[in-house]
């Protein structure tokens, strides 16, 4: 996973993904890691996937309220929100060539109640 961190609009909110790149064989499972910093006691974290020349696709959302996973999740993808160490690991089961893409972790900003992709703090990387 190659990282392309963006600058945050609010200094207290940020996300960071590691490692820089992940290469695995088809059929294996992989966990992508995202660390976040926020002053919001109830953060919303999002995972997206983006293929070349395509817009990002929302995969799932995690909150402390444990909102059910939506859209693309359906057993293939899972994530858990750890507020104590401020991480939201993202797991892909039985990776296939179709999952080779840039994956983004995003944090809804504090002070707002809507999740606008234009103002989310985003960090991303490439899965081979």
From TrEMBL:
Keywords: Adaptive immunity, Immunity, Immunoglobulin domain, Receptor, Signal, T cell receptor. Residues 1-21 are annotated as: Disordered. GO terms for cellular component: T cell receptor complex. It comes from the Eukaryota. Transmembrane segments: none annotated. GO terms for biological process: adaptive immune response. Residues 1-17 have a biased composition (Polar residues). This is Ig-like domain-containing protein. It comes from Chelydra serpentina (Snapping turtle). The lineage of its organism: Eukaryota, Metazoa, Chordata, Craniata, Vertebrata.
